[in-house]
Amino acid sequence: MLRLESKRLYYEHLEEKHFEVFYSQESDPEVMKYIRKASQDKDEARKKFNDYLSYMKLHPKLGVWAVFEKETQNQIGLGVLFHIEMKPESGRYEVGYRFNQTSWGKGYATELTHRFLQYGFNELGLKEICGTTNPDNIVSQKVLMKTGMKDMGITTEFRSGSRFFVLNRDEYHPSDD
């Protein structure tokens, strides 16, 4: 299992044991508000979960991680670093995250994004990492900008209608956030 760590969090590559928390987030309308429509049932969530697992078999250093607080050992979220829309043909990579509502406002999204940028640039040698947000998700836009990503405006290329952010490796400046 691929595991990463940051100051307050650790990240485990997604496995079957993470499904129940995945489902609780996937079915929470507030958690999913700016991502996509919340899953209506376990079968719908299971399909998305299995899509992630299938992608990770083909791309073992990329994928989806269950996010845990070091202090409590609780699974609190999900982080991604993978090809945009999980389509290798895009030639681009994106970072993303979601957290349980009880974990909002603690700086975890910024911490995760910094760690995944570091992993992508320094350990995988990626040249560019992107992020997309719903145009109304101001909080996530601030996170991406705080981590050095540049707002490129509304995109029609990927997730049409989303705000698109980009950071190149040569513009990346690690942080301790």
From TrEMBL:
It comes from the Bacteria. This is GNAT family N-acetyltransferase. InterPro entries: Acyl_CoA_acyltransferase (IPR016181), GNAT_dom (IPR000182), N-acetyltransferase (IPR051531). Residues 8-150 form the N-acetyltransferase domain. Gene3D superfamilies: 3.40.630.30. GO terms for molecular function: acyltransferase activity, transferring groups other than amino-acyl groups. SUPFAM superfamilies: Acyl-CoA N-acyltransferases (Nat).
